[in-house]
UniProtKB/TrEMBL annotation:
Species of origin: Myotis myotis (Greater mouse-eared bat)
Subcellular location: Cytoplasm, Cytoskeleton, Microtubule organizing center, Centrosome, Centriolar satellite
Family: Belongs to the CSTPP1 family.
The name this protein goes by in its record: Centriolar satellite-associated tubulin polyglutamylase complex regulator 1
Alphabetic keyword roster: Cytoplasm, Cytoskeleton, Microtubule, Phosphoprotein
Function: Regulator of the tubulin polyglutamylase complex (TPGC) that controls cytoskeletal organization, nuclear shape, and cilium disassembly by balancing microtubule and actin assembly. Regulates the assembly and stability of the TPGC and thereby modulates polyglutamylation of the microtubule, which antagonizes MAP4 binding.
Domain of life assignment: Eukaryota
Any single GO CC term annotated in Swiss-Prot or TrEMBL for this entry: centriolar satellite
Primary location class: cytoplasm
Taxonomic lineage of the native organism: Eukaryota, Metazoa, Chordata, Craniata, Vertebrata
InterPro entries: CSTPP1
Quaternary structure note: Interacts with PCM1. Interacts with TTLL1, TPGS1, TPGS2 and LRRC49; the interactions link CSTPP1 to the complex TPGC. Binds to alpha-tubulin.
Amino acid sequence: MMLSPERLALPDYEYLAQRHVLTYMEDAVCQLLENKEDVSQYGIARFFTEYFNSVCQGTHILFREFSFVQATPHNRASFLRAFWRCFRTVGKNGDLLTMKEYHCLLQLLCPDFPLELTQKAARIVLMDDAMDCLMSFSDFLLAFPDPSPGWLFLETPPSRPQSGCRERWLH
């Protein structure tokens, strides 16, 4: 694996800070201490290998507390990717869900996911007075444009035209 030119242009400490390596090292050690009985069966080196593989694959955020999910841009992007992977069949089936139902899905992946953030995303899709209306999975997911800056996790999301209320098709 070759190092990127940008990596070579930065001092080591800046590169480590930019990639949030300390955050992941601290979390890995905490996870190690919490699971030391399991780790004793297969070893510390294997634990760290599996931990950092999960970080690279983006599965390290599953079922974690919200403070960890929002801790780094990679965690935020991984969370939204996991949400899409887990629930994309909702979109394929054309199901329309309420903001509260989407919040329940988010909480399956992150039990303390804040309702306020789900509401922020829904406001981008729906008008403020139509927050109990139905929306498609793709519309809801598009309310999280580029997860790398993690705008959803900030106080003020960017503005986007509101599309109004969606309704279920009656068969």
